[in-house]
Amino acid sequence: PHKKPLTGRHALVTAGPTVEPIDPVRFLSNHSSGLQGYAVAKALAQLGAAVTLVSGPVSLTTPENVTRINVQTAQQMKEACISALPADIAVCVAAVSDWRPKHVSVVKNKKGTSSLAPIDLVENPDILRDLCHIGAQRPSLVVGFAAETDHVLKHAQEKRRKKGCEWLLANDVSQGVFGQESNRVHFITEDTIEDWPTMSKEALAMQLAQKIASFFHQQDTQ
Ligand code: C5P
Predict the structure, then answer these.
(1) Counting atoms of ligand 1 from 1, which one is nearest the CA of 147?
(2) Which residues, by range, are in coiled-coil regions (predicted)?
(3) Distance separating alpha carbons of residues 142 and 139, to the nearest angstrom
(4) Could you say which of 20, 28, 181, 208 would form a disulfide bridge with 100 (CB–CB 3.0 to 4.6 Å)?
(5) pLDDT in tens, 160-197
(6) Phi and psi for 51 in degrees, rounded to 5?
(7) What average pLDDT values come out for the chain (222 residues) when binned by 10 residues?
């Protein structure tokens, strides 16, 4: 049978939200459904890649032929990603919490005590940026997603440069996208912008996986 184009490649995908504890019963998180990240993992596996999916808590089933590692916090997600290296490809789709509570209370915070508010926050690692600058283990192709509400292209181009990834898929979330079935993105590289039409998250994932396959095909034939 015909060899799948990403056979022999290892892909690392992050997906879902992260959850940052405040106390034993409370946390900071976001509305990420994990749909887009799981679709990317599935599409890459369908093209033959060995896929490690580092996932925050979501209610989705693991796609076939995908190795899933469950995490809660951004710090755990970063550790799991680094442990999964080396990888040829990294696609960061997770909605990582930018902040985490500085102190996690071991007992439940009570009403009427001064310990509840304010909650001091510290910055979480930027997993995408860190993967781009990890040195010898750096995947040869690193891809990010960016949700923007305004000046989408300008902000996304700046973000791609700042993070240091080859490709960034930017979408306009001013109308909301979390948990929706479809997505519309601009595909941004160092010197090109492609406007992809609105399509299902599954179709978008497959289009991205095909792009990734042609990236490696070109690299191999050069
Ligand atoms: O900076 P911003 O959150 O808009 O960037 C989004 C991209 O960066 C996504 O690909 C997301 O997975 C990644 N990211 C990350 N770690 C963070 C924040 C964002 O990997 N702490």
Answers:
(1) 4
(2) none
(3) 6
(4) 20
(5) 999 999 999 999 888 765 667 788 899 999 999 999 99
(6) -115, 130
(7) 91 98 95 95 98 98 98 98 98 98 88 70 98 97 95 96 98 73 92 96 97 95 86
The residue type of 88 is: D
Q: How far apart are CA 78 and CA 81, in angstroms?
A: 5
Using the structure block, give the residue that is written with the tokens 């992260």.
18
Please state the residue numbers annotated as binding site for CTP: 98, 108, 125-128, 145, 159, 163
Structure tokens at 95: 């909605």
Name the DSSP letter for residue 17: B
CA dihedral (73, 77, 79, 80) in degrees, to 10, reads 130
Question: Which of 96, 124, 154, 168 most suits a substitution to test ligand 1, by most atoms within 8 Å of the C-beta?
Answer: 96
Query: ω before 86 within 30° of 0 (cis)?
Result: yes
